[in-house]
Amino acid sequence: MTAAAARRPALIGAPIWLSLPALLLFTGMVIVPLLMTAVLSFNVYDHATGVKAGEFTLAHYAKVFTDSYYLGIFWHTFWVSGLTTLICVAVGAPEAYVLSRMGSPWRAIFLLVVLAPLLVSVVVRAFGWSMLLGREGLVNQLLQLVGIGGLKLLYSDAAIVIALVHVMLPFMVIPVWTSLQKLDPAVTQAALSLQASQATTLRRIVLPQILPGVLSGSLIVFGLSASAFAIPGLLGGRRLKVVATVVYDEYLHELNWPLGAAIALTLLATNLLVMLSYNRVVEGSYRKRMG
Amino acid sequence: MSFLELVDLTKTYGDVAVVDGFNLSVEKGEFVSLLGPSGCGKTTTLQMIAGFVDATRGSISLGGRDITHAAPNTRGLGIVFQSYALFPHMTVWQNVSFGLEMRKLPVAERQQRVDAALGLVDLSPLAQRYPRELSGGQRQRVALARALVIEPPVLLLDEPLSNLDAKLREDMQFELRQIQRKVGTTTVMVTHDQTEALSISDRVVVMQRGRITQVDAPFALYEHPRTRFISHFVGKANLLPVAGSAGGLASIRPEKLRFVPRGAGQVDGEVQERFFLGSQWLYRVATPMGELVVVCPNDGTPALDEGSVSGVAWPADAMRPLAADANEADAGSPVRGAQA
Amino acid sequence: MSRNGPLALAFHSLVVAFMLAPLVVVCLVAFTPGNTLSLPTTELSLRWFRAVFAHPDFLQSFRNSLWLALAAASIATLLAVPAAMAITRHQFKGRDALNGLFLSPLIIPHLVLGVALLRMFAVLGASGSFGWLILGHVVVVTPYVLRLVIAAMVGFDRSAEQAALSLGASRFTVFRRITLPMILPGVTGGWLLAFINSFDEVTLSIFITSPATVTLPVRMYMYATESIDPLMAAVSALMVALTAAVMVLLDRLYGLDKVLVGERT
Fold first, then answer.
1. Pairing mode, strands B57-62 and B203-208
2. Contact partners, residue C12, CB within 8 Å, separation at least 6
3. Euclidean distance between the first and final Cα of chain C, in Å?
4. What is the extent of the structural domain holding A157?
5. Cα separations (Å) of B80 from C89, C222, C258?
6. Chain C closest CA to B52's CA: distance in Å?
7. What is the DSSP letter of B336?
8. Best exposed site among A290, B172, C192, C218 by fewest CB in 10 Å?
9. C23 CA to chain A: closest CA distance, Å?
10. Where does the pLDDT of residue B339 fall: very low under 50, low under 70, confident under 90, or very high at 90 and above?
């Protein structure tokens, strides 16, 4: 009796009871706080007296979308994220490909080596980079051996991007790796038997099939980079701001919570928009082509 | 009063009747097969008997007791699933003892009965192994032992041999029958393999599109298929147009045809192709009556070459008139087969 | 499958070096005998590790993080297992929405969730409460458990449960004796993954911890913005060691590659 054909005997309780505890928690800890923050973002804020809970205004959103300081921060965040994404594609996709062509046990070992840093706290990794990129750090020491020296790497966009790439690379490798695993090796062999060169096979057979993986990896990397806090915070220094650190400033230093809320929600909206619409458009066209 | 009685058993999903008015009476100790192509409703029927699918209409009674809507864990039936469904985290011994545990039998009695069951299926030395360490055939026996150890009133088998390779399947068919005869448990088996159904059942129930189309003992079923579909599904058949049958056709089995000198048989034909099957030769012969398939035993007489012309003859009573096809078959009357 | 050429392997070595560099450096510098961030070239010293254990703030944060992670992972597992059963075993309206809700912390930036909870806690007067902090972490790590348990349930031969039912087991017995043992690798793998993610979490925690409930990563973040010295390196090395231990456990119980990549390896 295959389970698919049989009626599934409802094992313990109806689904509502099973999911109720989690549902209550998520409602209370995700939906309610987000709604409250949405309301907060429209509240009036007075520097002297604080948040005016009953009064509403669009001033904060106006600031986010028209003030050049905030626009600049968003722009800065997006181009740092964009650059990180591009580098992750350029490095992560080929790396996934190289890994997939390894024999065991190396393949499994190196896959772990590349992915395991995911489980190490981002603070540790950021700190590691700050040690490598500092003025007396290892990278500079190595460069001094070659003759170039004293590059200011830390507290720069370069440091942020390098550390972000380090953190985000696994998020690119995983979907591309998964796409590669789904490839039927016989398809590649068929192409080669029809006398396509290795390069052509790569370009016209392998690449189109892993493109969905590259795309979904890019979305994840971009979204995570745009909302990154710890890395820009530790490696960008006080001068280089991204959206996340500005929100931190508004909440904990300026105490202008409504403005902070407006910025945070704008970031959330951008994230969701990028993920949902781009995903649908591009993956849709792929689904059509490849069934 | 028969032991397992299915009356007007029906299962509909929306407008579609997956099983429609299924009637069957199974005697105690009988081995009945439900045979049919995929989608014919045989598995759903078995699931209704087991209690995993709720019947839309009709009744199921076991030894006089109505179990139509009883929960599956109260029916006490023994079931062997297609995938064997062994508990992977338990040893063979623990698997087989599980049903006895649920019946709260004392350890000593469980020990005795499990050992007996494992002996019955010839797996005693493997009692402490885990399912993943066993071969397909061994797992199947564990499943059988687990179902039999609880001494169920009825044993249900869902395509029990379909996951085994051909040679093993053949061996297991006979073993299965041997064990069933030894223990005497009433058995209902679902299969799509007609050789299996014919070789080990007391009666075969042929199903098509949710309905029963014929119920007979294996020999009777093979010799007298009622419809065109059955004549092809059970064994091979040559179809000849004939007057005086409701469907306009009669069937004749290839082994009933023989080669005779030209002109000496009902028809002459040219051998188009021949296939060697080990114990038999199979010929496709083009005749004015259409293409005929002839099967001859490999008994030493020289085989005909492709392209040769020969007469083909058959005894007149070997022709079986066919009823019109599936949809018109009996839908409602309780069918009791003749024990041929 | 053809193997990689020398160019590909050189590229690969650079990538591996890149991925390991910060972690290796951190672990090496932790053993330096000197006062500044430098590699231990003359000798290995444990002085900075001793300094960590003598530092009451770090010890307190470590304890906080440990209890927090244990509690968050356990509560998340208790919630996720029944939720996974509901999602995989039943068809009901809103099932996809429910699944989406439970996985949403993977898409919602921790930053946004952090400030949202900060606001709610302020309104409720819950700021600084360890219990509410735990709940915050539960929400963040539940998706990890849920995904693994759902994967375990989807790849599950349901006929084993039917077999148990047919042998007379009650529904609860079927769950306890058949279903649960069969999905246990997924459940324990999920718990471990939740644990390490809670322990590592910094962005959300920065907003909702108070001086009394400061977690280790937050403490490290604050320390690192003030000064950078080998003490940080020693703490970091300890965290790497803890992570490695969890990874070994995860690999034994479930398979590290499956956890990181998904069931399709």
1. unpaired
2. A95, A98, A99, A110, C4
3. 17
4. 69-282
5. 23, 63, 32
6. 8
7. -
8. A290
9. 6
10. very low
CB within 8 Å of C211: residues ≥ 6 apart:
C128
Structure tokens, C136: 């915050």
Q: Which chain C residues touch A118 with a CB distance below 8 Å?
A: 260
Whole-model pTM above 0.80? yes
C-alpha to C-alpha distances, A132 to A113, A156, A283, C30, C39, nearest whole angstrom? 19, 13, 39, 14, 11
- Measured between CB atoms, which of A5, A7, A9 is closest to B43? A5
Model pLDDT for residues C29-39, shown as the tens digit of each residue: 899 888 877 77
Instruction: Return d(Cα A237, Cα A134) in angstroms, integer.
Output: 12
Cβ contacts (< 8 Å) between B110 and chain C: which residues?
Answer: none
CATH superfamily of C56-261: MetI-like (1.10.3720.10)
Amino acid identity, position A144: Q
User: In 3D, which of C16, C257, C195, C196 has the Cα closest to residue A120?
Assistant: C196
Q: Which residues contact C195 (CB under 8 A, 6 or more apart)?
A: C69, C70, C72, C73, C141, C246
A183 to chain B nearest CA, in Å? 28
What gap in Å lies between CA B47 and CA B18, rounded to an integer?
12
Q: Pick C243's closest partner by Cβ from A30, A37, A120.
A: A120
For the CA atoms of chain A, what is the radius of gyration?
Answer: 24
Strand partners, B188: B32, B156
ipTM for this model: 0.90
If you write DSSP's letter for every residue of B236-291 in order, what string do you get? --EEEE-TTSTTSEEEE-GGG-EEESTTSSSEEEEEEEEEE-SSEEEEEEEETTEE
Task: Please report the DSSP string for C121-187 in residue order.
Answer: HHHHT-TT-HHHHHHHHHHHHHHHHHHHHHHHHHT--THHHHHHHHTT--HHHIIIIIIHHHHHHHH
Sheet of B238-241, strands arranged across: B238-241, B249-252, B320-321
CA atoms of C196 and A119, how far apart (whole Å): 7
Contact between chains at C162 and B72 (C-beta distance less than 8 A): yes
b/e C77-88 (16+ beta carbons within 10 angstroms → b) = bebbbbbbbbbb
- Edge-first strand order for the sheet with B154-158 is B78-80, B154-158, B186-191, B31-35, B203-208, B211-216
Give burial (CB, 10 Å; 0-12/13-18/19+) of C185: middle
What tokens were used for A177?
Answer: 């790796």
CB nearest to C224's CB, from A31, A127, A166: A127
Set of chain B residues whose Cβ sits within 8 Å of the Cβ of C168: 73-74, 76, 99, 102-103, 150
Residue with tokens 């709260």: B104
CATH number of the domain encompassing residue A128: 1.10.3720.10
Contacts of A237 (CB under 8 A, 6+ apart): A154, A155
Give me the domains of chain B, ranges plus CATH numbers: 4-226 (3.40.50.300), 240-321 (2.40.50.140)
Residue spans of the domains in chain C: they are 56-261
Q: What is the count of structural domains for chain A?
A: 1
Q: What is the mean pLDDT of residues C98-121?
A: 94
Task: Give me the phi and psi of B17, to 5 degrees please.
Answer: -95, 110
Task: From chain A, pick out residues whose CB is under 8 angstroms from the CB of C162.
Answer: 1, 3, 6, 9
The span from the CA of A179 to the CA of A190, in Å, is 19
Tens-place pLDDT, residues B261-318: 998 888 999 999 999 999 999 999 999 988 999 999 999 888 899 999 999 999 988 8
